[in-house]
Design brief:
This protein is an alpha/beta fold. The chain has a single domain, classed as Alpha/Beta hydrolase fold, catalytic domain (Rossmann fold), CATH 3.40.50.1820. Helix content is 38%, strand content 22%. The strands form two sheets. An eight-stranded mixed beta sheet has the order 1-2-4-3-5-6-9-10, with helices on both faces. Helix 2 packs across helix 3 and helix 4 packs across helix 8. The longest helix is centred in the middle third of the chain and has 21 residues. The radius of gyration is 18 Å and the shape is globular.
Length: 295
Amino acid sequence: MARPVAFYSEGVKLAGDLFLPSDLGRGERRAGIVLCHGYTGVRNLYLPDNARVLNEAGYVVLTFDYKGWGDSEGPRSRLAPYSRVADVQAALSFLAAQSEVLPERLGLYGTSYGGATVVWTAAIDPRAACIVSVVGIGNGRRWMRSVRRPDEFADLLDRSAADRARRAMHGVSEFVDRNEILLPDRQSAELAAAARRGNPGAVGEIPLEYVDDTSGFNPEWIVDRIAPRPVLFITSDDDRLVPPAESEALFARAGEPKKLVMLHGFGHYEVYAGEAFRQVMDATTAWYRQYLPAG
């Protein structure tokens, strides 16, 4: 069962949905989990499926749109990674205040760029008691470089430098096709494209300032601060959009308790559906049950 909710981050109103387990008794409290979507995602794209599985496992779940995305207020379509961290912290505060939630038992779950966001948030906010990062990014600049030929990356940096000057002089960033920054992988991109076609909140263009934003956000710098709280990393050996080296780098720098789950033969967007989704959620629920029991 889901109910629409709203809360505030840095004075901006955010839209969310609170998912309650069907077996939640009157006056009963459960552990709560905040779900965080990726680069250009919105809360009703993929995340309701994760919420359903976690509800069945007994957890209260909160999904939400970052500032400027989906039904949330704020300047549209910005990445603003550190502002997203503030949004996740506000989501933790809101979830902890709900009568159905045990405020000392809060978890974070993020996929793709959300996998990076939850790592950074957990590193600076001890309220996050258990963390799951799926196909996440450890170092933004390394990731953007790794999926491009050298000349393509050099061209991207040149365009970014010109846009940086534009923003300083005129206050606006040039909007470009989403695929110019977030390169499509032929292997699984059609899955994402099909899902986005049916979602009015999905965007086709994003500002070039994403290049600077991504380059300056590197969760591997502080992932070690999560310990001794548990963190699970899930990736796939055939992810060609966010290569497994990103999750491996985060895992290598994290403290115990930690675990790395390597899926086999799945592309980036396949983790949201079918067999890959089942494997992701099996590992996720097992991790939460071990370190963040629902009841």
